[in-house]
Amino acid sequence: MSETAAAKPPRRADARRNAGNVLEAAAAVFVTSGVEAPIREIAARAGVGTATIYRHYPTRADLILAVYRLQVEALAEAGPALLASEPGPHQALVKWIDRFVDFVITKQGLASVLQSDEACYDPLHAYFLERLGPVCTQLLDAAAAAGEIVPGQDAYELMRGVGSLCAGAGTAARYDARHLVKLLVNGLRRSDAL
Predict the structure, then answer these.
(1) Which residue has the higher pLDDT, 131 or 15?
(2) Contact at 8 Å (CB) between 120 and 58?
(3) Of 69, 87, 104, 105, which sits most exposed with the smallest number of CB within 10 A?
């Protein structure tokens, strides 16, 4: 056993549960109050003290990065699971894009953070693309192979288009990003597959 492993005991079950509760609470608070929400608001929602948050995530940046990574991982894992459980690849793609829309809309508050001068946020965009690009490609390829969409679609282009359509979410009462994204995804369908 290395000296480092001996110095750092495994986290207790309640500590792991608290960390998970903090991330879920932070994600929900970031949606309603933005990423600059007071830590005490996150602590109250998680049912823990602020000291617990700072113990797990010493800086706000640590907390933001952990929430972002957790949600990216959940979205990355959803792609293959949807392909396995949905009746067809196009339906899996539709459901995954719907989850992607949820993810993008809730990340609108991160825009200012991601454009900040703090170097710790620089790798987030690359991480996002590295994890989600292949998942979207897998879904597009499966739908194309099944003859459900026009082949040759680019995952980056699709995700960028969805992101652009979601940029207006919440800014105008009559703007329905989800409806526009549905039109975009339906536009991938082959005319003979409709």
Answers:
(1) 131
(2) no
(3) 87
